[in-house]
Amino acid sequence: MVPPGGPPVFPAIDLTWLVRWGIIASSLSLYYIVFSLGIVLTFGMHKVVNFAHGAIYMVGAYIGFGVYALTGNFVVALIAGFAAPFFLGALLERILISRLYGSDSTSTFLLTFALSFIMVGIVKFIATAKYRALDVAGILDGRLDIAGTSVPTYRLFFIGFTVLIIILVYLFLTKTKVGSIVRAGTSNSTAVEVLGINVKNYFTLMFGVGSGLAGLTGVLFAPLFNLYPGMGDEILLWGFIVVIIGGLGSFTGSIVGGVILGVLHSFGSLVFGEYVMFATYALLIIVLSVRPRGIFVGREV
Questions:
Q1: Inter-residue contact 25 to 267 (CB < 8 Å)
Q2: What is the CB neighbour count within 10 angstroms for residue 10?
């Protein structure tokens, strides 16, 4: 069946085309990866799926927007966009979510889903539903010429900074004592408790870090798109698709799933046009049919 308007028209593929679309694909892939890593970390040692993750992403974006409006310093906005959701996530885990450990997944779903609605409602009340733009100034507002393509400086910063985040998360999980305890607890939390380690504190810490990553992703992506209270809904969907494809709880799976989705949503739009979302769901169905628990099942955090 030919899409409306006739078959897709493909531009001549040259270095300029590859640079332009390569940067777009890289940005989307890294965006999905960092957000989904937050889901993986909050999934944690108690296998909790946090449906408020998208709302926390939105809260982080708005906090970053507000701090940048007050200070004019984007670095401070990034710090605030991570720190506030970190403490919010840790607080919610310790006070509410931890009470449901060991219960059925429906209870956790309802709680985090309700928390999402509450956070969106509070932001709507404070900031209204008006669309807002975070316009960075200074060096991040420029453009660079790469192979004949004018590339926004901020998009290059976004790519570099998100790569740095991924590396830091990997080093945190593999090279630190806390990371070792978390990975051990993911496999067998009871054995870790036998060693005299208070795993509850580590549950809270990882939930906070995962929430902080969500908020930081929101601030980083804010200069590329408008802010609005419901902005967390779509990325939550894509984040879950990434971790389902890669394997829920898998660091490697999040990276692979993020790259697959980012490439599909960028280059795939040239092939499938307006049907790229259909292609996304088709890919999800295929992966679930072949690997119901994801590509990297068993390779957890």
A1: yes
A2: 9
Distance CA 213, CA 225 (A): 18
**In residues, how long is the chain?**
301
The Cα 80–Cα 38 span in angstroms is 17
pLDDT tens, residue order, the chain (301 aa): 344 555 555 555 667 778 888 898 999 999 999 999 999 888 866 678 899 999 999 999 999 999 999 999 999 999 999 999 999 999 999 999 988 887 778 888 899 999 999 999 999 999 888 899 898 877 788 888 887 778 889 999 999 999 999 999 999 988 988 888 877 776 666 777 777 777 788 888 999 999 999 999 999 999 998 899 999 999 999 999 999 999 888 889 999 999 999 999 988 877 777 788 888 999 999 998 998 888 886 555 6
Sequence-distant (6+) residues with CB within 8 A of 72 are 137
